[in-house]
Write a structure and sequence with these properties.
The protein is mainly α. It has 3 helices and no strands. It is rod-shaped, with a radius of gyration of 36 Å.
C-alpha cells in the first residue's frame, strides 16, 4: 500500500461540486413548481370549477324560466311558427341546464377524489424535497471538506517558492490494460 496519495488536481471535484449546487438549485425550483401546480389544481377543482358551474346553473335556470314564459306567451298567441320555435328553445335550455348540473356533480366528485389521486405524487415530491434538502446538502458539505483537505495536501506537497508541482510524463500516461 502506498504511503502517499498522488493528487494532481482537484478541478474535477470543484466542477462536480458546482454542478451539484446548480442541480440542487434547479431541482428545488422544479419541486416547488410541481407542488404549486398541484395546489393550483386543487383550488381550481374545489373552488373555481364548482363556483363556475353553480353560477352557470343559476344563469341557465333563469334562461329556462324565461324560455318557458315565452313558450306560454306563444301558446296564447295565434302564431304556430312561434310556438314551435319556443318549444325548441325550451328543450335546448333544459339540456343546457342538465349539462351544468352534470358538470357541477363532476366537479364535486373530482374535489372529493383529488387527494386520493394526487397523494402518491405529492408523497414522491416530499421524499425528493427531503433528499434535496438533507442528503444533497450534506453531500455538498462533504465535498467542501474534501476539497479543503485535498487543497491542504497539495499545498503541503508543493515545493518551496510556490512553484507548481510538475509530474513526470511517465506518471501521467494511462496504464496499459492488462491482457
Amino acid at each position: 500500500m502506498a504511503e502517499e496519495a498522488k493528487v494532481r488536481s482537484v478541478e474535477s471535484l470543484e466542477y462536480f461540486r458546482s454542478a451539484l449546487i446548480s442541480f440542487l438549485t434547479k431541482s428545488r425550483k422544479a419541486v416547488n413548481h410541481a407542488e404549486d401546480g398541484v395546489k393550483r389544481g386543487r383550488y381550481w377543482v374545489e373552488q373555481e370549477q364548482q363556483q363556475h358551474w353553480i353560477q352557470e346553473g343559476k344563469k341557465r335556470s333563469r334562461k329556462l324560466a324565461q324560455a318557458q314564459q315565452e313558450l306560454l306567451t306563444a301558446k296564447l298567441s295565434k302564431f304556430q311558427d312561434s310556438l314551435m320555435l319556443q318549444e325548441k328553445i325550451v328543450r335546448r335550455t333544459k339540456l343546457e341546464l342538465e349539462e351544468a348540473e352534470l358538470k357541477l356533480k363532476a366537479a364535486k366528485k373530482w374535489a372529493r377524489e383529488f387527494d386520493r389521486i394526487y397523494d402518491p405524487a405529492l408523497k414522491g415530491l416530499s421524499k425528493l424535497r427531503d433528499f434535496l434538502e438533507h442528503d444533497l446538502v450534506r453531500g455538498v458539505a462533504w465535498l467542501d471538506q474534501a476539497l479543503k483537505s485535498l487543497g491542504a495536501y497539495l499545498e503541503r506537497e508543493r515545493p518551496p517558492g510556490n512553484a507548481p508541482v510538475t509530474v513526470p510524463a511517465e506518471e501521467t500516461e494511462p496504464a496499459s490494460p492488462a491482457a
